[in-house]
Specification:
8 helices, Spore Coat Polysaccharide Biosynthesis Protein SpsA, Chain A, 20% strand, alpha/beta
Length: 320
């Protein structure tokens, strides 16, 4: 039984700090520099309490590597449940898979995205890298069963997905395959399976999805610059240079971390992978997402993208 009344740092296990915790009223944030070994934390009514876990590595000794953490927001308590066993329908049976979903202000789509991923990859660990959303993205993701990595201030896509990737790599067992995707895919996220299968089958080392249907977009300036930058830096002809839907083996992920800043993440990843001798394959999939059109919002978004693309190009040119 554990009861804490005040907002202050309280050490209650070896190298474990409970930060800003009021288990009766507020959120619980754990900061760890070692693995957390525990059976159960309960409130006075015997209900398991844990509201939000950030950047931590959990190991429950009586079910090592065979449990997952279901985290629920909006004041609900989470449950720790046994992970589903792998079945013949699992496309990556025999290989552990971690899925990392990049999201910012996707409260209306993230639950559908997580649910689709869970249906396609029932044994995968699903992480949501929430870049300080101002809506209910984190809560919706947690309620859908994802593990959420979120920080108080926006750090950009590249930095936030890097943090989630590092958390996934610290999980046990270490995943052998990694799938990255964007949080606005909704139900179409279930169609990402060919990327994982391509890497698992050895067709390529980094599998990238191209969208079968183009919706929205501007005049192609940012996309064209991204293609030019990748070819200039490593010689690869990219058809989908900024697609965030990517699968890879763990060695490719480790070789490309940390990701480039902001929206330059995918350009930097492709360049780094090709330079290290990894094979990149592109696969056209029937995916849908939240498209930005030729509006003020859309042009502002692509302007930010272009700035990050330019910064990534300059940083990789200096390192060549």
């Amino acid at each position: 039984m554990l009861s804490l009344e005040h907002y202050e740092d309280v050490a209650f296990a070896d190298r474990l700090a409970l930060l800003a915790a009021n288990l009766l009223d507020g959120a619980v944030v754990f900061g760890l520099d070692r693995d957390l070994h525990l059976h159960r934390l309960e409130d006075d009514n015997g209900v398991a309490v844990l509201d939000f876990v950030a950047d931590c590595d959990l190991d429950f000794p009586h079910a090592a590597s065979d449990v997952r953490l279901d985290i629920h927001g909006a004041g609900e308590y989470p449950r720790v449940t046994a992970e589903q066993s792998r079945t013949e329908s699992d496309p990556v049976a025999g290989a552990s898979l971690a899925v990392i979903v990049a999201a910012r202000n996707e409260a209306d789509r993230i639950a559908a995205t997580v649910a689709a991923l869970r249906g396609a990859f029932p044994a995968a660990a699903i992480w949501v890298a929430d870049d300080a959303s101002t809506d209910q993205t984190s809560e919706a993701a947690m309620a859908a069963g994802a593990r959420v990595i979120s920080r108080g201030q926006p750090h950009g896509k590249g930095a936030n997905v890097t943090a989630a990737a590092e958390a996934a790599l610290s999980d046990e067992p270490t995943p052998q395959l990694i799938l990255l995707c964007d949080g606005d895919l909704g139900g179409s996220a279930a169609r990402l399976e060919p990327l994982v299968v391509a890497v698992a089958a050895g067709e390529c080392d980094l599998a990238v999805a191209s969208f079968g249907r183009r919706v929205g977009g501007g005049f192609g300036l940012a996309l064209g610059f991204a293609r030019w930058a990748i070819h200039r830096l490593c010689g690869f002809e990219a058809g989908a240079p900024i697609s965030g839907q990517r699968a890879m083996g763990v060695e490719v992920l480790q070789a490309t971390l940390p990701f480039a800043r902001g929206y330059g993440m995918e350009i930097g990843m492709t360049v780094d992978a090709v330079r290290d001798g990894y094979r990149v394959g592109e696969y056209e999939l029937d995916l849908t997402h939240r498209a930005t059109g030729r509006s003020i919002t859309g042009f502002t978004h692509r302007g930010r993208q272009l700035l990050d693309f330019a910064c990534t190009y300059l940083s990789r040119r200096r390192s060549s």
